[in-house]
Amino acid sequence: MVTGILRRVALAIVVAALVTLAGLSLNRVYSGQLLVQLMAGAALAAALISALLRRLPAWLAAPVSVLAMVGYALFSINVSAHAGGVAGDLRSLTFDAARNAVPRLLTALIPVEPQPDTILAPVVLAWLAAFAGAELAVRARRPAAALLPPTLLYASALVLVGPNSDVTLWQPLVFAGIGALGLVVGSATSGARSLRGIGNREKAVLRVRTATGLTAGLAAILALVVAVSPLVAGLIGDKPGDPRRYVQPPNLDVIDQNPLIRISGWAAFPEQQLFQVDILKGAPEPTPSATPSPTPTPSLDPFSAEVPPPPETQTEEGNYDTRLRLAVLPDWDGVTWHMDADYRDAGRVLPPVARPPGAESTLPETYPPLTIEERITVGELRGRLLPAVAAPTRVDGLRVAYDQSNGSLLTTAPLAPGTTYTVTSVSPSVDVNQLIAADVPNGDAAARYLAVGPSVPTDLSQFAQKVVQGESSPYLRAIALQSFMQEHYAYAADAPSGHAYPNLSFFLLADPSLGGQRGTSEQFAAAFAALGRLLGLPTRVVVGFHVPAGGGTVTAGEAVAWPEVLFTGIGWVPFDPIPQPNTPSHAVEPEFMPAPPPSSTPPPSVTPSAITASDASSGPNGGEAAEVPGPSAGSLASGVGIGAAGLLVVALLLVMVLRSAQSRRRMASGDPARRVVGAWDEVMDGLMLAGHSPPSHLAAVEVADYAALVVADAPGRRHARRPRPAAPELSGLAKTVNAVAFGGRTVFDPDESVATSARDRAVAFRKALYRRRSWWRRALWWIDPRPLRRRADPRGK
Asked: Nearest to residue 677, comparing CAs of 766, 753, 767, 739?
């Protein structure tokens, strides 16, 4: 009796040990040892409960084990919440962990911090695997089958770890050894029972059959090894797949998709209090001078390449960029700078920012990095992006997602006034001596940082080459571009938003009297980065904030965008093309401006009709008058010109009348379904007239998103007394058009209110788009005949 109990307990311990090994394997992507401790406790408790309840019916033992599992899960949630610094009561933590256990486990940044939502699934699976294995080993007396649940859990842990940890050979060997021990203990128990009460002859026959079966099994195993070993040997050097790449990371809100366009909005309300910064460690220094010089001063930040910063801004360690970053925008398609971020749920401790291409092996640092700890209290800042110094290493007080490629932070919930968090960051120092001789990476690794969009204006390429003419070093080219922009362009907080190629061309090349050569930090940063890419410099744009010396309130007026250039062996280096305050700028010299296009008509020449009678009397032949065309020829030419002009005016008036009739017919006549489609046609015509016809492959909902970007990036003009009207959101209209055009009336039959709403949205959108156009596009808006021949298509094709 005692021997049987000991054997059952031994089998339960074997199963628990196998499950613990699975937890030990999974713990390689976790920080600390809390996960493996909780999984070991779950495995041991589940296996022992199964062994002790063997005498009870299975239908009763299972509910008892489930109740015990629930209690242990609550205990694990409470322990991990205290260890991980997660605030909240046990009830809210449990519901949140149960709802997000699997998604956050698959999206969490490695190393994963043991928190309620990242330990719940492993603990529950460990309990179930141990209970199932113990039931098969103890109650069903199937020791071989009992190894299946722990083995499946171990294999799942290996798949989840994937390529994110080093290979450990001792764990699978120990797992196989413990499994063999379980088979020995189980077979001894079952063998002793099977040999009771049979004769010697039957025992001999049984032994022969057992030996024959073992021999056949061994031969089959050897044959399988011979067949599979070449395939396994070929896979030794391959890395396993990572299932985490198939899981979609958190999506950005609309307000955060392109934070660069928020610069002009913040500049319009500079006194708006966005957040409060309290310096707890490593007070940030005021940003040094931004004026460069052809001969950089050693050991300076690139923002101060002419003269050393004032003594109060220096430290014994060097100079550091301590501005807060909100977002990093590495991608440029000729229309907008945007993020392609891979945010992963993270714990309090963050891994280092990944080395960019070409900077994997950096040069030795001249000065040690500066550790900065700040407490930030949110005021009127909106969205989900969190400001922090360049390379955050720890965040307390808030659940965050982290993009390891650039170090930007995202909250799991939208920001609200009063939200407080503490962030610890590392700000490296840059030695200009290293930059002067540094190269820039190229090839596929840096291709995304050199992309310039499908169509590059020729005048901008020529302009960039003229600005840096004679500079061979990448760093000196960047300094020359920075210096040129500081000297020739003016900062204007009221400049309109926009950073597409047309906006940058207007900012860089337009005459100052027309509003050119002035802009916000949006235009300065985007223009520097775009021109840098045209010069072969890998660039990106960063949006962030200046920090008052010693901390304090950060207002909307402190928002700023700046460019960064990637150097081989060093990494990303910031530049500041914005001129210093109260520094006058002078217009771009004519030699830098693009040459006007050659005229297709020959230069004017003196015609006989311009010769007067007095001129004719003094011709080369003494008093011989030159031949002068009769007045009838001039009258005929004038009549033809006046007639052509009249026909043109009549044609333009006819176009305006037909266009007006077309709009009324579309949106005021017919049934509601026809008027909804007509309103969408008006939206499509507006985009075409604005010079931004959507690509033909876009569906209606995608066209609505495209229209929103067109309106957001439109330069337009600002009027103090007549502000630009707000553009309505078109996604609802796009869905209505889809339902009407493709679903039929059996699916959706719009009424008068739907048709009226569609008309109002179309009219408001066209009005907003018209007000944001340049003067010459507004002049051509009503006389353009293209809408009269465009074929209507609800999808925008």
From this structure: 739
User: What DSSP character marks residue 409?
Assistant: E
Give residue-wise pLDDT tens across range 208-244: 777 787 687 678 777 776 776 666 555 555 666 666 6
Contact yes or no for 428/572 (Cβ under 8 A): no
Nearest to 375 by CA among 357, 388, 362, 363: 388
Which residues have a Cβ under 8 Å from the Cβ of 741 and sit 6 or more positions away? 677, 794, 795
Contact 520, 290 (CB under 8 A): no
Distance from C-alpha of 467 to C-alpha of 481, rounded to nearest angstrom = 6
The answer to whether residues 146 and 182 touch, using CB atoms and an 8 Å cutoff, is yes
Provide CATH code, domain 444-538+572-592.
Answer: 3.10.620.30
d(CA 679, CA 750): 13
Tokens standing for residue 736: 């209505």
Phi-psi region of 165 (alpha: psi -120 to 50; beta: other; left: phi over 0): beta
Residues 6+ apart with CB under 8 A from 458: 594
SS3 423: strand
The end-to-end CA distance of the chain, in Å, is 82
Do 727 and 711 contact (CB within 8 A), yes or no?
A: yes
Amino acid at 416: A
Rounded-to-integer distance, Cα 327 and Cα 336, Å: 14
- The contacts found for 96-104 with CB under 8 angstroms, 24 or more apart, are 103/247, 104/345
Closest to 467 in 3D by CA, of 450, 455, 479, 453: 479
Residue spans of the chain under pLDDT 70: 1-4, 186-199, 203, 206, 214, 217, 225, 228-255, 283-321, 358-367, 595-643, 646, 697, 713-726, 741-748, 790-797
The tokens 């003196």 sit on which residue? 606
Half-sphere exposure of residue 595: CA atoms within 13 angstroms, side-chain side: 5
Q: What is the Cα–Cα distance from 354 to 376, expressed in whole angstroms? A: 25
Nearest to 766 by CA among 739, 754, 784, 789: 784
Residue 394's DSSP bridge partners are 349, 424
Structure tokens at 607: 């015609």
